[in-house]
What we know:
Blueprint: E1 2-7, H1 11-20, E2 25-30, H2 43-46, E3 52-55, H3 62-69, E4 78-81, E5 86-87, E6 92-93, H4 94-101, E7 107-112, H5 117-121, E8 126-131, H6 135-145, E9 150-155, H7 158-180, H8 185-206, H9 216-227, H10 232-243, H11 251-254, H12 256-262, H13 271-280, H14 286-295
Parallel strand pairs: 1-2, 1-3, 3-4, 4-7, 8-9
Antiparallel strand pairs: 5-6, 7-8
Amino acid sequence: MKNIVFIGAGKIGTAIGGALQGKDFCLAFWDKDPSKVKEIKDLSELVPTADFLFFCVPSWVLREAVKEVASFIRKDTIVISPSKGIEIATNKSTDEVLKELLPAGVDFALLSGPMLADEICKGNLAAAVVGTEKVEVYHKIKELFIGTNLKVEHSADVHGVALGGIFKNVYALALGMAEGLGWGSNEKGILVTEAIAEMQEIFKILGGKPETVLTVAGLGDFIATGFSPCSKNYTAGLELARDGQAKTMSEGLSSFDSVIKLLSGHLEKFPLLSILKHIIKDSAPASAAFSVWVNSY
């Protein structure tokens, strides 16, 4: 029986765990909020049992979570992170944080794609790319999800998968704004096409493969995040367009400063990203900022 441990018993951890229920696994959860987990165990007792260790935490606390348990992780444990975003203090992506902090020899993979937790819990189909350089690690993870509603595929472009998790959030803000501005389907279709083109060029600059943008870790996740009322990025974009400010904090907003820093000297190449900067950082009204882009067609 495989032991699977989840650090983080929030929406995504609960959803992935629920997808794995009923299989011949022993599932255990830990959360900093003990009210979320019945009979919570100490990390020093729980983590060493893990054959697979999921870090289901927001990107801004990933470092803290990994540091807290790193010394308890067995060498043969496979670490899996569905976190999507960037570390604000260092501008590092999730793969870079894991490489830095995990004990030498411990294999890890990113899990990224259209995985809205509410839909997984309903039994709806979801999909993800397993980003790992080792095919054998992918096959072990794939085996976990056989017979579940979460389908997985492989990519060796680990950094590209991490970039997909960052930029789909950022560009999903634009789709939320489009909804808030009352755009039609044609305009949203144009917006999606332009966003994907920009992401492909950004991946070239930041060390990912452009073709990774067209996988479920890029395009698939962008569509799911950008069109779903369940998405905080969609909601934040909607609020920015309608109210001029976002009450909802999202990964796209939290990572925006880091994204601008990463692309310093390149921003003029990306009209959509530049428009988002005017709205988010310069407090420009979304209607005015996007009117220039619309009129360019």
